[in-house]
Amino acid sequence: MTVPGIGQSGASPAPHVGSLGVIISLPAELAAEISAKRVSYAGPEAAVVPPHITLVSGKASDSWDEAASYVREVAAAGEPFTLSLRGTGTFEPLSPVVYLNVESGAKECARLHEALLQGPVEHLLEFDFHPHLTIAHDLDSGAMESAKREMAGFAAEFEVTSIGLFDFIAGGWALREELELGGNGQA
């Protein structure tokens, strides 16, 4: 899921009925570190998509407002958790992706994903859900191998305290709300 709208401010256009995404964002310092590595493999265009972990990339089943309300309920019922990223994996040969493994926190990500799909939210990816953080996607084999090798020893850990609710507007994903886990409102 591309998320160039992170951090946008000002009045937002009405939600696009056909799109809805839910992600886990990274702390700023960690996001900057991973962004720099992604740029080194794919070039400056890789910086357009901030590093994130996708929980749902899809759409509202019916009403966007009802789906957004349901995402708020899931977030409020959730609890903060520790997420660790350790080493690399790949979806090759099915999909040309190199990613950082979600080690601790994978079960919590899967629980959030499943809870989100129990309501009016659809996940529209062709593959089963596997929590991960994409480092390289659809690059030449040399860049893919470099990403796998250079990031194999990578390790980081952070506390997940919120999830981001996104909508696809004007050709890009835009943050609509950052929702506290276990809270009743925005983070």
TrEMBL record:
Entry-linked Pfam families: 2_5_RNA_ligase2
GO MF annotation, one: ligase activity
Domain of life: Bacteria
Protein name: 2'-5' RNA ligase
Keywords assigned by UniProt, alphabetized: Ligase
Gene3D superfamilies attached to this UniProt entry: Cyclic phosphodiesterase
